[in-house]
């Protein structure tokens, strides 16, 4: 969600008529997208937004249109996951070679730092959560596969999470700040558990204690991933905590400082490797994300994704072994 959105603010309904007006509303209230309403000259849309604990929530009602996160737009801003729940109507989402049709009760995650396309062929109501990527605690190989993967409400965690998200949407305008923060924490854990179940992996269960402090530290780290000298001592000093306190904060989130940094670097390198038109060498991409030793990068990448960086570049996520397989 746009950084200008008020934290824990009471959401008012904002309506728009026509493509230009809706483009402005979406960019200001959610995130910059390229909007096409050519098929619907009488387009109308509305959105109600709230923001709790750094997570944006919105209920969006629109007529037929297409929304795209272009490569240029995806390169700007902090990386987030969009969680989209279809409430009324149907839509499609396409990203990283995956395509899902979403019907009422279905939901999917897609990545703001990569191009994606959403098509709404008719009147639609969706619930959207815009989640900082650092809060989705899944193993790297699972993160590589979740883009635009639809989850239905028929069974498993989907049968629990879909009604929960629908209830959040229906009560969004009435949430107090305290209720909103508790709701966001529960939502993130439920969604993470849903995709962990889908891929047969074990996801850590982060603590809600000190979460705001951890988010601040993680954001600081994300802006410095390219620095090969990034280490716990520097991170702790920059945030006026001891190195021991820093390790405790990350342990409460089910990980370690070193593991979290390595996984974020690998994830950003993976995205570059599969990005259309990215012609940089593998060595250059590794160095771009803080891997000074190409051999170490290759070993770490293969351990995380099951294939070498070169094979991944040629075949993308389809060239890697599914999570949980040997």
Automatic annotation (TrEMBL):
UniProt keyword annotations, A-Z: DNA-binding, Transcription, Transcription regulation
GO-annotated molecular function: DNA-binding transcription factor activity; sequence-specific DNA binding
Gene3D superfamilies: Homeodomain-like
Organism: Spelaeicoccus albus
PROSITE patterns: HTH_ARAC_FAMILY_1, HTH_ARAC_FAMILY_2
Keyword Transmembrane annotated: no
Keyword Transcription regulation set for record: yes
Lineage: Bacteria, Bacillati, Actinomycetota, Actinomycetes, Micrococcales
PANTHER family: ARAC SUBFAMILY, HTH-TYPE TRANSCRIPTIONAL ACTIVATOR RHAS-RELATED
Name assigned to this protein: AraC-like DNA-binding protein
Chain coiled-coil ranges: none
Domain annotation HTH araC/xylS-type: ranges: 215-315
SUPFAM superfamilies on file: Homeodomain-like
SMART domains: HTH_ARAC
